[in-house]
Amino acid sequence: MNQPTTDLPVARCLPEIVAAVSQSRPVVLKAPPGAGKTTGVPPALLTAGIAKSGQIVLVQPRRLAARSAAHRIAHLLGADLGKDVGYHVRFDRRATSSTKILAMTTGVLLRRLSSDPLLENAACVILDEFHERSLEMDLVLGMLERIRTTLREDLKLVVMSATLDPTPIVDFLGDATAVTSEGRAYPVDIHYSKSLSRDRIEQQITDVLPDVLRSTAGHVLVFLPGVGEIRRTQRAIEQQGLHRDAVVMPLYGDLSPQDQDAVMAPSDRRKIILATNVAETSVTIPGVTGVIDSGQARVMRFEANVGMPALRLEPISQASAQQRSGRAGRTEPGVCWRLWPANSHRSRRERETPEIERNDFSAAMLTLAAWGERDPADFPWLTPPPPASVHAADKLLRGLGAIDDDASVTAIGMHMLALPLHPRLARFMVAAAQRGVAQQAAIAAALLTERDPFRGADRPIGTIRGRQSNLSHDRADSLSDSHAPSDIVDRVEKLQAFADGDSRIAIQVGVAKQVQRVAKQLLRLVPKAAIAQADDPTKSVDRSDEESLMRALLAAYPDRVARRRNPGSDRGVMVGQRGVKLDSRSVVRSSELFLCIDVDSKGTEALVRAASAVQVEWLDERLIRWVDEPFFNPTTRSVVARRRCYFDDLLLSESPIECKPCETVGQLLFQQARKDIERLFSSKDKEISHFIARVRFVTQHLPELSLPALDQEGIESVLLQLCQSRTSIDELGKAPWLDHFRGRYSYDQLQVIEQNAPDRMTVPSGNSIRIQYADGKPPIMEVRIQELFGWKETPQLAGGQVPLQLHLLGPNRRPQQITEDLANFWSSTYGQVRKDLRRRYPKHHWPEDPTTAKATHNGLKPRS
Description:
Layout: H1 14-22, E1 27-30, H2 37-47, E2 55-60, H3 63-77, E3 85-89, E4 92-94, E5 101-105, H4 106-115, E6 122-127, H5 135-150, E7 156-161, H6 167-173, E8 177-180, E9 188-192, H7 201-215, E10 219-223, H8 227-240, E11 247-251, H9 257-264, E12 271-275, E13 288-293, E14 296-303, E15 308-315, H10 318-326, E16 334-338, H11 362-370, H12 387-400, H13 411-417, H14 423-434, H15 438-449, H16 473-478, H17 487-499, H18 509-525, H19 543-556, E17 561-564, E18 571-574, E19 578-582, E20 593-600, E21 606-614, E22 624-633, E23 638-647, E24 650-657, H20 663-673, H21 686-701, H22 712-723, H23 729-733, H24 737-742, H25 747-756, E25 760-762, E26 768-770, E27 780-784, E28 796-797, E29 802-803, E30 805-809, E31 815-819, H26 822-840
């Protein structure tokens, strides 16, 4: 091999890096784009003899970056790729047991750590592009820190970042050496849009592309959020003829290695490269001097309400924008057009949120469980995962059978780890293999992880189930709807029909072939111990296979079962009580139960893009429970009961049963009745309201008596007591309320109430007259004047504290005077009242001295 070149900016730092690594001290290298860290550090360590005791492992966050780094290092060293320098990414490996520098993705390293927990064959691990803060990279850092501090002090570690502040990483590693390198960058002229455009992104690109092409002679790199935008933009450029003599080339992670190599290869012909953020870091494309930045990226975020990660279109951070513009200044001065106004740039977040704070934690947790780390809280994290993410991951993995009650990995979990898939899809593959349909499941998993080959096809897609099908009637009949349908099975069947040569399937051929390649690679990775003997990879899906495949899907998505709201409706409710709506193209049109597999949860109702029917007998009996549930029926104004069958928290069926009074029923009735409690007794029996008012009068004026109050709380306690033996509002209305209110007090307490707030009072005429009590008002007695003759003073209540308010009535029973001082009335006002009433009622008795006169109950003059 050749000696590595030393003209890279990072070369000045290499002696310090080599010295620290040789002493097994971790190194944290901050080197801006263009410094040459990716191609400079591994060869320097190789030359220093670090690889004598094992491999130098260069870890990259993306497959494209790992392959590209291996190619460039091999070229610089004059080595054959696959021998001294190699790479290992998902489904692609070019290396031998004697490879000295091995570039790999984080996913590959994690699977290696599962089978080789001590990394026995590795001398040094280099974590590149750590500033991206992927969850897998954070997990790898923690695992390496655990290894080197407990079991392998000789394991060397280098962490490299372009933009990240190294201080937190240095502090985390404890004994690390921080190194900062200069970069190599030429000035880049930044242009901003005048305003935020609402045009489609391809229109915005084609609007500025001519200016960029005129401003620079090099290749133009266009950053777009995803493959869909790349294809639309490519079509728009070519249709408008904007590319002139340039070639338009896409670049994204799932592009074939051959097409990726073509983009990276030097070329005399000008290129317009339409890329996702795979081109943001790590990958150097020679000759790029112009950049157009859409300012957007699709970011993976965990959607707790549907239990799966989902890509969300979001504005990129300022740091990402800087990385992208820097691509135009690697070899000479360049230009960058940003498709957003300058005044909005500062409002973008400074850096990307670490993935561990926003993404699904289940894959990381399964890896830790297999590694013997049962509690993520005890694991060394640079940034700990949110507790909610850990809880959701734990719940999912237990539901999948991947970990047991002690959080230890199960045999199923170990099988799942062998597959480079999300735990749900790995569980699906294992379950399908156990049912003898691994080959069909591999196709289904590939369809769910790769781009959809049927989306954007030129012709309407025929379905195997006969909905606008372009397939033969015989094939459609043989796969009729005798079994509940599945969008996943439907797509597997269409892809197999395409593979069998049926040209009538509307499909994107290139994408379909990529799906087929991935399916074959997945099938090879299925653990042999999980494959049933019945599996035949050459057969197509028959009816029994269809059910096996659908039941395997249920094993992977047990928490995504939904029930249709009404027969024939496209809406349903999923476990967790989230509302869902089936895509109009779904073949799952009639099954009452269905799985929500591919879900977009952006709206108030989650859109189910791919569903699969479920039969109730397939459900795990351990998650099915029967509950007798009472509930209040507002129509009958009563508590009724139903026997309900639940799968998890999803209602499957219900039937009415007899509702008997009990504590639960009483509580339900109480909650409804308390909303208008006084109507239950005030209109029915005034004696109840009268008794309550008397008690409140006494407790207000004589609190020292400590009588139980009949305030709102006291009344509700009586209501609750009555509810325990009843089931309806009508029954409450007929209840003996007064008896229960009086029952709150002892005999002596009732006597105290009577003494201080008497129900009635006997006046001199001999009549017993009721006293009126009301909150916030004095006690009132309405009585004819003649019935009080002989009383000299106003009666006092509440132990003499409150005078009785007398409403003195004339013979017509209309008030003539209101007083709380009867003596004053007799002496000062009675004379005038007597004069008026005597004239109007001459037959009535109107003595001059009422205090000595005899009271009469009818008011007439006494007979002589």
